Amino acid sequence: MVKLGFSVDNHFDVNRIDPDEAARRQAAYLLAHHYGLYVNAGDSFNDFQQTLAYYHHLQQLVGPAVQIRFLAGNHDLVKGISYEDAQRGIDPLYLHEQSLTVGDNTVIIGNNGWYDYSLAPQDLQQTADFAQWKRAYWIDSAIDQPVTDAERMARVLTTTRQALAANAGKRVIYVTHFVPTPAAMYYSPEHQWWQMATGMMGSAKLGAMLEQAQVAAVVFGHLHRRQAPLKRGGTTYYHQPMGYGLKRLNEWGTADWFHEWTSTLVTLTA
């Protein structure tokens, strides 16, 4: 049996966490608790190069006992990487559009994910200009992207469909940054800013595909709203983001980042 750990939305820089201390403490925990694989599902730093350096450091600290992999959330893509490089297998630890076999019959499929506005309320989908709102108000406007959001999400769906077909008959754990199902969403009609932001949360089409393929488990983040495991048919969704521990925006239950990381670590087995 292989013990698998998944985490998301650590935001080391925004949370003002020393990366060297974080890597040492995470490495010690993963080794002490006998994890064989650790996957971070995105939003580690607001700079892809810092994210890449962090997970290489973590891999060096744990050595061959633990495989380290990571995805890029929207924050990681703000700086330090082009759109073209973000879609390529530019590093052995980068799990985007990659599959990793663990145990006897389990495969981890990784994909950064994206969004197509399909998680927004129906009335807004009919009337709102999400692309214009994004350019004016959303951090993703700084991300290098020569294609539309719909086109970027179409690639996610295409490469996911191909990965699922290539691994048919296996137990699949799918890891992504963005929200893959409307069942995990929440809405606040009295807050129009948030209602518009829901368009940038993910895609309902992805979850429909994963459930149809009977994917065993889906790990994701981005929404910053911790939830109990959500089962839909044969698929269980895990959404346990670490999130922000700031005075102006505190999503933690304690003041200790390490406690928040360990308490939101999703553990599965293969």
TrEMBL record:
CDD domains: MPP_superfamily (cd00838). It comes from the Bacteria. Gene3D superfamilies: 3.60.21.10. Residues 37-225 form the Calcineurin-like phosphoesterase domain. This is Metallophosphoesterase. It comes from Lacticaseibacillus suilingensis.
